């Protein structure tokens, strides 16, 4: 199932580290490895389209695993 969510990128210091997208509603998604490095900047706001992967487990387990397909950076201005 494809979803589009908007929120803030965070770096979590759990295990070897994990990237998260925290939506404006407070839901946390764990960004799976392989996401574009242009997205992975703490504090960056973005609109992300991807697939929630229920068939994978992660070390951090901070929320549903989100496989990013595309994203749009949102200006903070």
Describe the protein in words:
A hairpin with a 4-residue loop joins strand 2 and strand 3. The protein has 77 residues and is an all-beta fold. The model has no long low-confidence stretch (mean pLDDT 94). The termini are far apart. It has a five-stranded mixed β-barrel. The chain is built from no helices and five strands.
List the keywords:
about 80 residues, mainly beta
Strand order of the largest sheet: 1-2-3-5-4
How far apart are the first and last residues' alpha carbons, in Å? 32 Å
Unreliable stretches covering 5 or more consecutive residues: none
Category by helix and strand content: mainly beta
Q: Care to count the β-strands?
A: 5
Number of helices: 0
Rg: 11 Å
Oligomer: single chain
Q: What does the largest sheet look like?
A: 5 strands, mixed, barrel
Topology as a string of helices (H) and strands (E) = EEEEE
Shape: globular
Give helix % range: under 10%
- Share of residues in strands: over 45%
Mean pLDDT: 94
Task: Summarize the topology.
Elements: E1 2-12, E2 18-23, E3 28-31, E4 45-53, E5 65-74
Parallel strand pairs: 3-5
Antiparallel strand pairs: 1-2, 1-4, 2-3, 4-5
Short summary:
The protein is mainly beta and 77 residues long. It is 0% helix and 52% strand.
């Amino acid at each position: 199932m494809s979803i589009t969510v908007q929120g803030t990128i965070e770096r979590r210091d759990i295990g070897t580290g994990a990237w998260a997208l925290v939506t404006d509603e407070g839901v946390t998604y764990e960004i799976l490895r392989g996401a574009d490095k242009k997205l992975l900047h703490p504090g960056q706001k973005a609109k992300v389209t991807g697939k929630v992967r229920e068939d994978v487990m992660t070390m951090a387990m901070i929320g549903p695993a989100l496989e990013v397909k595309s994203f749009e950076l949102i200006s903070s201005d």
